[in-house]
Write a structure and sequence with these properties.
By secondary structure, this protein is α+β, with helices and mostly antiparallel strands. It contains one helix and five strands, in the order ββββαβ.
Length: 56
């Protein structure tokens, strides 16, 4: 699943959900794999900065 996030004005970033376990989510951001807690991903999605969600 990919998320397009609004950073500032028209500037956007793409974040891809690579894998998810009960304790961690793994996101690809700027070519790097980042581990985060599921609450962090939920906060990102609920922040109002997500412009688009896609499968792929």
């Amino acid at each position: 699943m990919t998320y397009t996030l609004r950073i500032a004005g028209d500037l956007t970033e793409t974040v891809e959900l690579v894998a998810q376990t009960q304790d961690r989510v793994f996101l690809r951001w700027r070519g790097e794999i980042v581990a985060a807690r599921p609450q962090a991903r939920r906060a990102m999605v609920e922040s109002g900065r997500v412009l688009e969600v896609g499968n792929g």
